[in-house]
Amino acid sequence: MNSYRPAEIGMPLAEVDTPALILDLDAFERNLDRFDASLAGRTVKVRPHAKSHKCPEIALAQIARGAVGVCCQKVSEAEAMVEGGIGDVLIANEIVGAPKLGRLVVLAKRARVAVCADDAGNVAALDAAARAAGVRLDVLVEVNVGANRCGVEPGDPAATLAKQIASCRSLRFAGLQAYQGAAQHLRKVEERRAAIESAVARVRQTVAALGKAGIACERVTGAGTGTYVFEAVSGVFNEIQPGSYIFMDADYARNEWIESGIPRFEHSLFVWTTVMSHPAPHRAIVDAGLKASSVDSGMPRVAEFEGAEYVKASDEHGVLRLNATARLAVGDKLKLIPGHCDPTVNLYDHYVCVRRGRVEALWPITARGAVW
Length: 372
What we know:
Elements: E1 20-24, H1 25-38, E2 45-46, H2 56-64, E3 70-72, H3 75-83, E4 88-94, H4 98-107, E5 112-117, H5 120-133, E6 137-142, H6 156-167, E7 171-177, H7 189-212, E8 220-222, H8 228-232, E9 239-240, E10 269-280, E11 283-286, E12 301-303, E13 308-313, E14 318-322, E15 333-337, H9 341-345, E16 350-355, E17 358-364
Parallel strand pairs: 1-16, 2-9, 3-4, 4-5, 5-6, 6-7, 7-8, 8-9
Antiparallel strand pairs: 1-10, 10-11, 10-15, 11-14, 12-15, 13-14, 16-17
Helix pairs in contact: 3-4, 4-5, 6-7
């Protein structure tokens, strides 16, 4: 992380240089409130996914509201969280290779760290690394519940792997990882509900196979922002992992939410950008391009300004198409709603935290670039 600070405490938003990653604290806090309210009366535990925010300050705010810890995807993300004061981290992913395993078991001496596995050889490597480090490592079996990404097949194959973990002297079988990521952005509520019903059936099949093998399953964890209420009421999942609900990007906003039980969260995360050129009446150029906002899930959306559409991104330029009534001048500043919040966050060193038009805090994104 370099020493550049994009803003100073107390500065008006209008004076913040661009591009910058803006977090509207009021909207962020209302999202936390809505999330809590949506789970009122439920006993499911919450373990938010830190890959969305990569920031210990945000993780600590979630834990202060009752979260049991966080999820990460990489050892480096987990290291950043533990260094930032988080004591319970699940790496909801497979960790392969001696360098990463060495760092994983060292981290397990500093905090409660769990990891996922879907391969017998990887389980043996985890056991050897943990034994060499003198630690006992929690390992969850990742089950393929329909996303067809990582994960052993449900039922007997998952139970066989769990039995291997339980037999390892330096490992402890800690449950099932069952994330249906492909369901999160299915637009219609009933499509998402049906995908999770299928996932739940696969988990039930696996829990039954574990029971038949005499293996207790203490945890079933998974879920994301698009479906978490469905998992929470399933009677199977006892831990959920939503991440993007705190920010809400343009892609998630395209989902239907009515009658899902999931609140419509607010956009709280924005890319702050400046009009750097206005070469034609119907075209303006901003200084936020591919290096300022991820476009893998679509272009950013212009917020709080009528008549401008972000239509094209190159490395350092974003092209806005303007209608006849749009009035912009070179030097004007705009908020963009990222198409996909997670990779956009990974482009910045700080959140510029704003409340009612003034900078209240700068939160470092300490896990930025933590992909190893």
